[in-house]
């Protein structure tokens, strides 16, 4: 997985060693995802609300990116299957709630 900046957007590129099983994925990082876990079946990503993150000195750095407006106030958890169905969902966590770790 690689985080890539292009103009006012951040993208997550997921490349697989076995190209017969999975093709490359490019996902817009609209929620400022900072955690990820993956296996042969799924990809799970989590973000921390930008305004609640103590490690960020200011939100000014993030203003140049085209994040979803709710990414500043809420943390998110996103799931995506790596099968042909490409089933996916994203949930907003309660205010001041963050994901610290997870596994799949």
Please tag this protein with its features.
104 residues; mainly beta; 4-stranded antiparallel β-sheet; 3-stranded antiparallel β-sheet; globular
Q: What Rg do the Cα atoms give? A: 14 Å
Q: For the largest beta sheet, what order do the strands appear in spatially?
A: 4-5-6-7
Relative strand content: 35-45%
Indicate the percent of residues in helices: under 10%
Question: By helix and strand content, what is the structural category?
Answer: mainly beta
SSE arrangement, N to C: EEEEEEE
The total count of strands amounts to 7
The count of helical stretches stands at: 0
Secondary-structure topology with pairs:
Elements: E1 2-6, E2 9-14, E3 25-28, E4 33-38, E5 42-47, E6 76-81, E7 88-92
Antiparallel strand pairs: 1-2, 2-3, 4-5, 5-6, 6-7
Descriptive account of the structure:
With 104 residues, this protein is an all-beta fold. The chain has one domain (2-92). The chain has no helices and seven strands. It has strands at residues 2-6, 9-14, 25-28, 33-38, 42-47, 76-81, 88-92. Strands 4-5-6-7 form a four-stranded antiparallel sheet, with no helix packed on it. Strands 1-2-3 form a three-stranded antiparallel sheet, with no helix packed on it. The chain is globular. The two termini are 16 Å apart. The model has no long low-confidence stretch (mean pLDDT 84).
